[in-house]
């Protein structure tokens, strides 16, 4: 195209020259040569300009492992260890090993409850800050092996990793860098210990889908603080298990959301700037972790961790304080519904079981999710992209399949429309953005309209991301118009859904 255009212009120019010259043949020769040179220069210039623009617009995107992790939406945390038996939240590290003695450990039961609660995986505290190892590590003398549980023959990681495989759940490990027991803590030797423990866990209990590096970093038994070799740890995990996603306050794969209440940012960019920050000290502010950085250089989705109880470990006194299914549903809206993932802690009790109170709440939560998101009213309508008063049907916009996104039309400032089959009462709209080319939408506007186009309600929001659930007091609507009012590059809306959820579940 470009070549043709420039040839035409040059032809016209040189053609005029020939008409004026008697040396026709010579001129013709010069004409051809110079035309070729000029075209080449123009082409090189055009292509390098285009390339530099592509590079400029190249945005971070999720790796395959990060995308798969994101699609899991919600999974469980299991805080278990000496604290379960002492009633502490942060063990001191000097607890007698015998204190760890579950009377009826049954990891199959954990998995059955997880499944019945709709969770996709379980991350266990293989080692919390007290240093006690739930597996018989060769690199510690403070483990299940030294306890009287199963005469020192027990291995919680073995039982849980086996059960997860059996039930089709992902298995994750929390391996606290902070260790209040290990005699080498605070010295270089401890980095070797941590590396060896990591190797041990991956070799004996893998595959490990998520590895959790907790941010708490205090003093060890000798009063010293550790300088962790996180670069070495990361290199190790990448080499032995490239598909594992690593969590820490600042990744490398998943970031902390900046609070332990399970609440994601209403503005939530999947990108973060990590330059200048370190894992053990000096993460970005909790607000930044919550919202991400719009132009952040690294893809790093937020994970919202929260416990079903006030504490992370089981305490009998908290049996009456277990979150209700409705509260969990609300947390789902504020985590997964804001484009993050939800990590919900269910602490096994002293028997080594998920407690009845927690199990009932979890199953109730799943029921609420199913009941309230079963009937996608947008699916019964017609999806369009609207530009300059004309509308074009886009079937994939409301087919209920988020990955069916079709990039047939992506005008710079776009409006999508769902016309329902009839005027319907709705109180929840779900938007999904295809993130395969990066996250783009910075501001959106939803207008609910009646059949004649009369405005019923207007809702403004910021980011969309993988999934954005917007709930509001019920309104009758025929049209749901979604406009992108500010964006980085063209936003790829992959799905619009509409629901009438139980009014009592909406916190407005
Ligand atoms: C924190 C820890 O100090 C808590 O004990 C808990 O494990 C929580 C998930 O992370 O940093």
Number of domains: 3
- Alpha-beta classification: alpha/beta
Task: Look at the structure and give the mean pLDDT.
Answer: 90
How much helix is in the residues? 25-40%
N→C terminal distance: 55 Å
- Bulk shape: globular
CATH-derived architecture of the largest domain:
Alpha-Beta Barrel
User: What is the CATH homology-level superfamily of the largest domain?
Assistant: Glycosidases
From N to C, what is the helix and strand string? HHHEHHEHEHEHEEEHEEHEHEEEEEEE
Tell me what the structure shows:
By secondary structure, the protein is of the alpha/beta class. The chain has three domains: 2-58, no CATH class; 64-372, TIM Barrel; 377-505, Galactose-binding domain-like (Jelly Rolls, Sandwich), CATH 2.60.120. Helices cover 30% and strands 23% of the residues. The chain has helices spanning 2-20, 24-57, 64-71, 82-86, 107-116, 156-167, 188-205, 230-240, 286-291, 325-334, 356-372, and strands at residues 74-78, 121-127, 170-175, 210-212, 245-248, 254-256, 271-272, 298-299, 301-307, 341-345, 382-387, 390-393, 415-433, 441-449, 455-461, 468-487, 493-499. The chain has an eight-stranded parallel beta barrel with strand order 1-2-3-4-5-6-9-10. Strands 11, 12, 13, 14, 15, 16 and 17 form a seven-stranded antiparallel β-sheet that branches. Helix 6 (156-167) links the parallel strand 2 (121-127) and strand 3. Helix 5 packs parallel to helix 6. It is globular, with a radius of gyration of 29 Å. The two termini are 55 Å apart. 43% of the residues are buried. The model is unreliable at 1-11, 13-23 and 43-56 (pLDDT under 50). The structure holds beta-L-fucopyranose. Beta-L-fucopyranose (FUL) is lined by residues 89, 214-216, 305, 312.
